C-alpha cells in the first residue's frame, strides 16, 4: 500500500452538500403536488399522484446508469488517470442520452395504455393523461440531471450545486402557480420541465472550468457500461424497495385496521423513508472518500474515511433518534391527522420506531462500502432486508397482535438487517465489517 500525501476528502462540504441537496430535492419533487393540491380538486390531486410509478421507474433507471459512473470518475481521479476519467464521463453521458430517448419513446408511443394501467377510472383518467402527456418528456432531461447532480457534488462544485437546486425550486413554484392557473395540469408539468432545464444548465457551467471539465470522447464499451449499471444497481434499487415496503404494510394495515390505521402507519412509514433519505449525506461522503481511497490504493486514507463515516453515522442516527422522540407529538398533526385517537397512536408508534434511526444509518453506510468494493450481493441483501423484507416480515407478524406491533416490526427491520450482516461477515466470512483488503479489485 502506498501512503498518499495528497489531501483527503473533507467530510463537512460533501456531507452538508448532500444532506441539504437531498432535503431540497424532496421539496422540489413535492412542488407539483403542493401546487396541484391548492389549485385543483382532490380528484385532480389523486390523478397526479397516480403517475408516481413512472416517476419511480425513471429515478431507478437514472441512478442505475449514472451515479456509479460519477463515483468511478472519482476513483480514476484518485489514481490520477485523466484518460479514464474522460472515458467514463463521456460514456455516462452517452448512456444517459440513450436511456432518456428510449424511455421517452416508450412513454410517447404507449401513453394511453400506460395511463390506463395506473388510472383506469373515469374520475381520474383524463387528468392523469393530461399531466402525463407533458411529463413523458421529463426523462430526456432527468437522466442527464441525475448524473450531473452526482458529478458536481462528488467533485466539489457546491456553489453550482446549491444554485441549481434553489433555482429549480424557485422557478418551479413560480411557474407552476402561474401556468397552472392558465393551462391546468399541462402548465404544471411544463413548469417542472422548464425548471429542471434551468437547473441542469447551472450544473453544466461547472464543466467550464479547466480543472473540473473533462474532454468528451466518443467512448461506448457495452461491457463497461453494464459493469457501471451493475455497480449502481443496489443503490438504484432503493426506490423499488421503498415502494414494496410502503405498499405491503399499507395493504396489511388497511385489511386489518381500516383507513384510520393506515393514516397512523403512514406517518411512521414517511419518517422511516425520510430518515433513510437523510442518511444519504453520510453515504455520499463515503462514496467519494472510499472511491478516492481505492484510486489511491491508500489504506491510511481508507481508514480515516471509514472512521469519519462511522462516527458521523452514529452521531446522525442518535440526533435523529432524539428529534423523532421530541417531535412525535407534533408530527401526526403535521401530516394532517385530525382524529385525536389516531394522532396519539401515531405518536406512540413514532416513539417506538425512533431508536432504529441509528441502525438505518449504520445499515446504509455498510451497504455503500460493500457496493463500491464490488460485494454487490451483500449490498443488495442488506438494503433489501433493511428497507423492505424484514420491516414487512416483522411488521406483519407483530401487527397481527396489535397495530403498535407494526411499528415494533418496522423498528426491528434495520436492526436485524445490520446484525445479520455483521454476524455473516465476522463468523462466516471471517472478515472485519470494513475490510480494507477489499480495496484490491480486479
Structural overview:
The chain has 442 residues and is mainly α. 81% of the residues lie in helices and 0% in strands. It contains 18 helices and no strands. The protein has helices at 11-39, 42-49, 52-78, 82-109, 111-119, 125-135, 139-154, 158-183, 185-204, 222-236, 238-278, 280-296, 299-327, 331-334, 340-353, 356-372, 376-399, 404-428. The two termini are 16 Å apart. Residues 1-5 have low confidence and may be disordered.
Structural class: mainly alpha
- Provide the succession of SSEs: HHHHHHHHHHHHHHHHHH
Determine Rg (CA atoms, Å). 22 Å
Cα end-to-end separation: 16 Å
Helix residue percentage? over 70%
State mean pLDDT (0 to 100 scale): 85
Summarize the main sheet: none
User: How much beta, percentage-wise?
Assistant: under 5%
Low-confidence runs of at least 5 consecutive residues: 1-5
Total helix count? 18
What's the overall geometry?
globular
Number of strands: 0
Short characterization:
The chain has 442 residues and is mostly helical. It has 18 helices and no strands.
Keywords, please?
18 helices; 442 residues; mainly alpha
Sequence-ordered SSE layout with sheet pairings:
Layout: H1 11-39, H2 42-49, H3 52-78, H4 82-109, H5 111-119, H6 125-135, H7 139-154, H8 158-183, H9 185-204, H10 222-236, H11 238-278, H12 280-296, H13 299-327, H14 331-334, H15 340-353, H16 356-372, H17 376-399, H18 404-428
Amino acid at each position: 500500500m502506498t501512503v498518499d500525501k495528497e489531501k483527503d476528502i473533507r467530510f463537512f462540504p460533501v456531507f452538508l452538500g448532500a444532506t441539504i441537496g437531498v432535503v431540497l430535492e424532496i421539496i422540489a419533487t413535492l412542488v407539483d403536488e403542493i401546487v396541484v393540491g391548492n389549485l385543483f380538486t382532490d380528484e385532480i390531486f389523486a390523478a397526479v399522484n397516480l403517475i408516481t410509478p413512472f416517476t419511480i421507474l425513471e429515478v431507478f433507471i437514472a441512478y442505475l446508469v449514472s451515479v456509479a459512473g460519477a463515483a468511478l470518475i472519482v476513483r480514476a481521479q484518485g489514481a490520477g488517470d485523466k484518460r479514464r476519467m474522460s472515458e467514463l464521463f463521456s460514456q455516462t453521458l452517452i448512456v444517459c442520452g440513450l436511456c432518456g430517448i428510449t424511455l421517452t419513446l416508450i412513454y410517447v408511443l404507449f401513453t394511453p395504455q400506460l395511463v390506463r394501467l395506473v388510472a383506469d377510472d373515469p374520475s381520474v383518467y383524463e387528468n392523469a393523461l393530461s399531466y402525463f402527456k407533458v411529463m413523458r418528456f421529463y426523462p430526456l432531461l432527468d437522466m442527464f440531471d441525475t448524473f450531473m447532480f452526482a458529478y458536481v457534488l462528488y467533485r466539489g462544485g457546491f456553489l453550482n450545486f446549491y444554485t441549481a437546486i434553489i433555482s429549480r425550486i424557485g422557478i418551479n413554484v413560480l411557474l407552476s402557480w402561474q401556468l397552472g392557473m392558465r393551462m391546468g395540469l399541462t402548465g404544471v408539468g411544463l413548469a417542472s420541465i422548464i425548471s429542471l432545464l434551468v437547473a441542469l444548465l447551472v450544473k453544466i457551467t461547472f464543466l467550464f472550468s479547466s480543472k473540473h471539465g473533462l474532454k468528451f470522447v466518443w467512448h461506448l464499451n457495452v461491457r463497461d457500461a453494464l459493469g457501471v449499471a451493475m455497480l449502481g444497481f443496489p443503490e438504484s434499487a432503493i426506490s423499488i424497495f421503498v415502494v414494496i415496503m410502503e405498499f405491503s404494510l399499507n395493504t396489511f394495515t388497511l385489511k386489518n385496521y381500516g383507513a384510520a390505521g393506515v393514516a397512523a402507519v403512514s406517518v411512521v412509514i414517511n419518517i422511516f423513508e425520510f430518515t433513510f433519505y437523510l442518511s444519504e449525506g453520510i453515504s455520499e461522503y463515503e462514496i467519494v472518500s472510499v472511491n478516492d481511497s481505492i484510486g489511491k490504493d491508500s489504506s491510511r486514507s481508507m481508514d480515516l474515511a471509514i472512521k469519519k463515516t462511522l462516527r458521523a453515522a452514529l452521531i446522525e442516527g442518535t440526533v435523529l433518534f432524539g428529534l423523532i422522540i421530541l417531535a412525535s407529538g407534533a408530527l401526526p398533526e403535521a401530516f394532517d391527522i385530525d382524529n385525536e385517537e389516531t394522532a396519539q397512536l401515531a405518536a406512540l408508534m413514532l416513539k417506538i420506531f425512533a431508536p432504529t434511526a441509528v441502525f438505518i444509518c449504520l445499515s446504509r453506510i455498510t451497504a455503500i462500502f460493500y457496493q463500491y468494493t464490488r460485494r454487490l450481493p451483500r449490498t443488495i441483501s442488506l438494503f433489501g432486508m433493511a428497507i423492505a423484507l424484514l420491516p414487512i416480515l416483522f411488521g406483519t407478524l407483530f401487527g397481527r397482535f396489535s397495530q403498535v406491533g407494526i411499528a415494533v416490526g418496522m423498528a426491528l427491520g434495520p436492526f436485524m438487517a445490520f446484525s445479520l450482516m455483521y454476524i455473516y461477515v465476522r463468523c462466516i466470512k471471517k472478515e472485519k465489517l470494513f475490510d480494507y483488503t477489499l480495496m484490491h479489485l480486479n
